[in-house]
Request: fold
Amino acid sequence: MEFQKETNRIYCENEAGQVIAEITFPETESGIFCIDHTFVDDSLRGQGVAGKLVKMAVEEIQSRNGKVTATCSYAQHWLEKHQVS
Reply:
């Protein structure tokens, strides 16, 4: 699975060009990024893709010296579980 990176978005498309996995993390205030959306297609469920997306987003935000917040319930749970602040 090959992920594409854009500013504040990481995603993966299938052969037909449809998005099958995606996470978005806009900068809501200066230096504060909010993970507000995580999507994984049913065909990928149970493979750890959502967790990988959140991890990649957190790493990207931290590489910018940003602070991570989340309104997405999956990301909130992941951040608590992995003690990311």
Observations:
- The chain has one domain: 4-81.
